[in-house]
């Protein structure tokens, strides 16, 4: 079987979630965390290696809560996202404490990624459908196109990805009739009020449709994307304005640029699974109830890896 990897970005600070490390919050009846369900669904889909991207300061707790268990059911490796992990000739701006973003997170695993992979957020519950569709694309449909990258993503329905407890950030996608990505726009403060979904993109207020396709950072990528991310990182750093301590090198932004430059195609694989997340402390009870319901309906076992 073709080797494929699951790459989980788990280095986020989780400032909006409050006290504790949100990626390690227990939501299942057997003490399972959201990552357990993602790993279960990925392994069921056919992925055969797990790469965790974490911060060095949470390594001990991370390994204790999840790593030691997952090592019993899958090959596991660790990469460490570090603010100081910058290209030669660049240094950390004074006062910078915010991580550099999802593209730099994937770069942290550059020495471990040697096969097609799916990359996801640690604190998002995606459902099994996206994992199956991305895995099938990586194994059966992804093509070598010379210098042009062949990528894919799970396309979620915006209305299925909103939080009842506050606003969220989403990559709002434009998709052509052949289900190829035209563009993805990072949109912030996305929320629903009085039946209307709004957000902010490019510093402007925007009105969205609940039927819009959005990226949830569930991308199917070839190993060759690593060189692209590495090559483009200096240009990103060069355009960060002095004093801007929050600019992020984001995977959707890089992919959007590649598509617009004609250097990549991205097949959007539609999924109608509902997203559940832990953006806010109040989200936890909602996630716990959703998982209990899926267990009652036979989607998951009560003891996930038992």
Structure description:
There is one protein chain. The protein has 306 residues and is of the alpha/beta class. The chain has a single domain (5-14, 26-296), classed as Spore Coat Polysaccharide Biosynthesis Protein SpsA, Chain A, CATH 3.90.550. Helices cover 27% and strands 27% of the residues. It contains seven helices and 13 strands. The chain has helices spanning 34-45, 59-70, 102-107, 128-141, 225-239, 251-260, 283-296, and strands at residues 5-9, 49-54, 75-80, 117-121, 124-125, 149-157, 168-175, 181-193, 196-201, 204-208, 213-221, 264-271, 276-277. A hairpin with a 2-residue loop joins strand 8 (181-193) and strand 9 (196-201). Helix 1 runs parallel beside helix 4 (128-141).
Q: Which SSEs are present, and which pair or pack?
A:
Blueprint: E1 5-9, H1 34-45, E2 49-54, H2 59-70, E3 75-80, H3 102-107, E4 117-121, E5 124-125, H4 128-141, E6 149-157, E7 168-175, E8 181-193, E9 196-201, E10 204-208, E11 213-221, H5 225-239, H6 251-260, E12 264-271, E13 276-277, H7 283-296
Parallel strand pairs: 1-2, 1-4, 2-3, 6-12
Antiparallel strand pairs: 4-11, 5-13, 6-11, 7-8, 7-11, 8-9, 9-10
Helix pairs in contact: 1-4
């Amino acid at each position: 079987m073709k080797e494929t990897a699951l790459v989980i970005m788990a280095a986020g600070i989780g400032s909006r979630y409050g006290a504790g490390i949100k990626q390690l919050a227990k939501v299942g009846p057997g003490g399972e965390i959201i990552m357990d369900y993602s790993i279960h669904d990925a392994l069921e889909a056919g992925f055969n290696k797990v790469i965790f991207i974490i911060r060095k300061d949470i390594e001990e707790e991370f390994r204790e809560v999840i790593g030691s268990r997952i090592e019993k059911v899958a090959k596991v490796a660790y990469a460490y996202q570090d603010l100081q992990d910058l290209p030669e000739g660049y240094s950390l701006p004074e006062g910078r404490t915010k991580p550099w973003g999802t593209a730099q997170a994937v770069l942290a695993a550059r020495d471990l990624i040697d096969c097609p992979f799916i990359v996801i957020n640690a604190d998002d519950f995606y459902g099994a459908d996206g994992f199956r569709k991305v895995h099938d694309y990586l194994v059966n449909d992804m093509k070598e196109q010379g210098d042009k990258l062949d990528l894919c993503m799970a396309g979620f329905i915006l209305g299925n990805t909103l939080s009842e407890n506050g606003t969220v950030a989403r990559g709002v996608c434009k998709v052509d009739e052949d289900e190829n990505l035209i563009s993805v726009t990072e949109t912030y403060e996305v929320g629903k009020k009085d039946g209307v979904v709004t957000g902010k993109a490019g510093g402007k207020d925007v009105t969205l449709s609940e039927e819009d396709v959005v990226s949830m950072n569930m991308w199917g990528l070839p190993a060759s994307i690593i060189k692209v991310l590495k090559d483009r990182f200096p240009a990103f750093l060069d355009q960060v304005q002095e004093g801007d301590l929050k600019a992020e090198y984001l995977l959707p932004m890089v992919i959007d640029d590649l598509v617009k430059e004609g250097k990549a195609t991205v097949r959007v694989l539609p999924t109608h699974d509902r997203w559940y997340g832990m953006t806010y402390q109040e989200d936890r009870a909602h996630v716990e109830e959703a998982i209990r319901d899926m267990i009652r309906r036979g989607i998951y076992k009560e003891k996930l890896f038992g």
